[in-house]
């Protein structure tokens, strides 16, 4: 199955949106049904232990580049999540592991898999940011293979559910940008004021040479 689309985040720059989408905590808060999203060492984590350790934690998104730098997504790393989703008459909760395959502003690519009882999926996904007149256009696409009970429902049921999740996710990101004033860019500008802070921002933005993009 293939899913794709474009979503516009208003009153923002690509750098500001990239900063927000670099924060796993932001993604966790914005993704509907997500209990937690955390870095793990491999693709076969103990989800029971992760749930016990992380499900009740109280960590908030932030616009502080230094804080995001400590927990930002990194190319080649694995991230585990437990995500509940409604698909037709069923409400599976997927234990999911995602690997960041490529991360180079403004482009990110990831792959992963998840399972929930008698259903499972494998996926690859990418997103690309492009500055627009009124904000940032996020172009995204996902290819997924679905197995088990969910697959039996067919694309006519799965597609609307997936599109609804994506719509709610980007709407939540927009709300977070506005609420935390990430879109104003003040914190990012301040963090670029000296050599040490430029290194922090470059790390978050996926730059290896410290150059501006």
Write a short abstract of this structure:
This protein is α+β, with helices and mostly antiparallel strands. Helix content is 35%, strand content 34%. It has helices spanning 14-21, 24-30, 47-54, 65-71, 149-152, 155-179, 186-191, 195-204; strands at residues 2-10, 34-40, 78-84, 93-104, 107-116, 119-132, 135-148.
Your description of this structure?
The protein is α+β, with helices and mostly antiparallel strands. It has a seven-stranded antiparallel β-sheet with strand order 1-7-6-5-4-3-2, with helices on both faces. Strand 4 and strand 5 form a beta hairpin. Helix 2 crosses helix 6 and helix 4 crosses helix 8.
**Structural class, judged by helices and strands?**
alpha+beta
Strand numbers in spatial order across the main sheet: 1-7-6-5-4-3-2
- The level of helicity is 25-40%
H/E order of the elements? EHHEHHEEEEEHHHH
Task: From the alpha carbons, calculate the radius of gyration and give it in angstroms.
Answer: 17 Å
């Amino acid at each position: 199955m293939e899913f794709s689309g474009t979503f516009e985040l208003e009153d923002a720059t690509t750098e500001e949106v990239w900063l927000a989408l670099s924060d796993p905590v932001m993604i966790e808060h914005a993704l509907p049904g997500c209990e937690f999203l955390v870095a793990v060492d491999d693709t076969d984590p103990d989800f029971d232990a992760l749930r016990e350790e992380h499900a009740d934690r109280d960590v908030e998104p932030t616009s502080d580049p230094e804080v995001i730098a400590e927990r930002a997504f990194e190319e080649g790393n694995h991230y585990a999540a437990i995500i509940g989703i409604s698909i037709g008459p069923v409400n599976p909760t997927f234990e999911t592991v995602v690997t960041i395959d490529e991360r180079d502003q403004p482009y990110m690519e990831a792959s992963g898999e998840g399972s929930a009882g008698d259903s499972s999926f494998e996926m690859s996904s990418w997103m690309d940011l492009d500055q627009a007149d009124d904000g940032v256009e996020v172009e995204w696409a996902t290819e997924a293979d679905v197995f088990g009970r969910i697959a039996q429902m067919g694309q006519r049921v799965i597609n609307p559910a997936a599109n609804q999740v994506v719509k709610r996710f980007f709407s939540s990101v927009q709300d977070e940008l506005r609420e935390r004033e990430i879109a104003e860019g003040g914190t990012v500008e301040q963090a670029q004021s000296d050599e040490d802070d430029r290194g922090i921002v470059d790390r978050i933005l996926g730059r290896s040479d410290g150059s501006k993009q």
